[in-house]
Amino acid sequence: MSSSLAAMSESRLNAKMAFAGKWYGVRCAAELCSEDPNRFAGQIVDPEFRRVRDLG
Fold first, then answer.
1. Are 45 and 25 in contact (CB under 8 A)?
2. Of 22, 24, 44, 54, which cross-links 32 as Cys (Cβ 3.0–4.6 Å)?
3. 44 and 30 in contact (C-beta within 8 Å)?
4. What is d(CA 31, CA 16) in angstroms, rounded to the nearest whole number?
5. pLDDT tens per residue, range 1-49
6. Dihedral (Cα; 19, 24, 29, 30), 10-degree rounding
């Protein structure tokens, strides 16, 4: 595999992982907002994202 092809594959993988992470955050925020509607999505997503990022 050429280095440019490997870089493209890595770039695609990174983009897909970023999209999956954002989608996960949206789902978590929606679920947690339904449990506590007085909180803003940002107040929910930021701590959840940090928690998940620290697990990896």
1. yes
2. 44
3. no
4. 23
5. 456 656 668 888 888 888 888 888 788 777 877 777 777 766 766 777 7
6. 100
| CA–CA gap between residue 54 and residue 4 (Å, rounded) | 31
**What are the structure tokens assigned to 43, written together?**
């107040």
Token pair for residue 37?
Answer: 């509607």
Cβ 48 vs Cβ 22: under 8 Å: no
CA atoms within 13 A on the CB side of 12: 6
The residue among 4, 8, 51, 5 whose CA lies nearest residue 28 is 51
pLDDT of residue 2: 57
pLDDT at 27: 82
